[in-house]
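Why do we care about 3D structure at all? Because function follows from shape, and shape follows, mostly, from sequence. That is the central idea of this module. The next example makes it concrete: a single protein chain, its amino acid sequence, and then its structure expressed as tokens.
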Amino acid sequence: MAFQTAISIKEATDNIHNSRYLLPAIQREFVWRPHQIERLFDSLMRGYPIGSFLFWRVDPETAKNYSFYQFITNYDQRNPHNLVHGAPDAVPGLKAVLDGQQRLTALNVGLHGSGKWKLPRLWWNNPRAFPERRLFLDLLAPRTEDEEELSYKFRLLPVDDKGAPERGSDHEHWYPVGDILDVKDASDDLIDFVHDHEELKKTREPQKMLTKLHRVIHSDGIISAYEEPDQNPERVLNIFVRANSGGTALSYSDMLLSMAVAQWDEIDARKEIHALVDEIGAIGSGFRFNHDFVLKACLMLGDSDSIRFKVENFRKSKIGALQHQWDPIRNTISETVELASSFGYSGQSLISANALLPIAYYLHHRQPSLGDKDRKAIRWWLIRSLLKRGIWSGGVDNLLVAIRKAIRESSGADGFPTHAIEEAMRSRGKGLTFHDEELQDLADAGYGGRAYSLLFVLYGFVDVATNRFHIDHVFPRALMTPARLDEAGVDEGQIPEYQDRMNRLANLQLLEGSKNTSKGAKLPADWLRDQYSEDERRNHCHLHDLGDVPAEMKRFLGFYEARRARILEKLRRLLVSDSP
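And the structure:
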């Protein structure tokens, strides 16, 4: 990366207007307010540095693969979108602005254009709420050296049909800042201008001010830039993310989403993707998806060779084609999340959204109906893949591509190809075999995502599809405070052990939401007696492996160890099988 010779502001804005400076699709829209533009011009007149810029020199072969946008000249807050440039590969010496878009746009609007920002206390649909404003400099305003105030009185003022400011008094002379671009000879032209206005001849300040403005715009090397010549878009994207890290946080996938938006010309990609995230997030008890999940699903379902978040996968030729597949992809993603919800999963229990992508790929290419056998096979594979540590962390993109290949090659198979998928996983060191040490670890699982999957495995009779179930503490947490345990006669030395086991699997069960609410802080023996008849109580305890539920808190540890042993034995029976 090389530092370029500084150029003048006029040369920089000329480069904007001859399209030598364009904006990559990863850039966001112009967001500066009027006072920021005014302060920028004040800084220039004071001789303050305005920071360096970062450009990417784009070769024609690279330019034709991506979308680039023109700078805004006439800004309108109601429609702040930059126009796409039709032929960036035909622009000689194209430079994409990676850092400095807001400053360059502000200079361009101030010198060449205008802005429309909403006035306070007026409705958005009021046409008077967005007057056209142009940048002016009051040549009669006294200067101040107060660092908190503007030393030079720049103002973005509403203008009439002739471009004249709508405000003014005998103590003001508003000079259109953009007019300085047409001044060729600073000495003669500016002297003539001052002498043509009687109120400006009283002091030398107006001419000094205009002379300085001319020098700042035409002569001074203000625009200092680093230029990145590398045509590797991955490197450039990483540079962009780091260069912009001082403002609102930007992620790599944020940039790729912006690229996707740029490549779709028939569908508003950003609106569609965000709407889908909201839609699937509201399914069932609610999920926590983001646009990363949707982008990854698009690459997975669209059969992209690689599903990594790489610029290569977001070229026009690839991501542009996905817009024609968007409707079926969107429907499949929704159907997949609906299916996961019917298995009992939600944002609390789904510890990896990536686990849904193989299911989505299968659903995307299956016959229209999904039978009960298929549902059971999918559910069992999903649960086991979420229980096995390390499956969905590290090397996930390569794993998903391998699973997709296995599903594709099993297209003639009857139902969900569990065996083929697990062979592909095993070949990548991510098999779903559970060893005894892992089962012991599962039996000690704490409250949270894996606990849900474990309870789904252990107590598959619970109808999580039609009822909202909660994870309930058999012995309530409210009774596990040191004070309550001491009151119950528990030895002080055992209290840490009680509190450690309180949130572990052997003290957890799935309860319908209404029953969990009614249970409150009751001891389990008291609640069972109030809730069920003797036969129903015996059946509930048998189904949930509760055994003989003690009536006293002092016997909790014995209950815990006995239930843990029953759970461990059941896990040994269940998780060594490919089917429930």
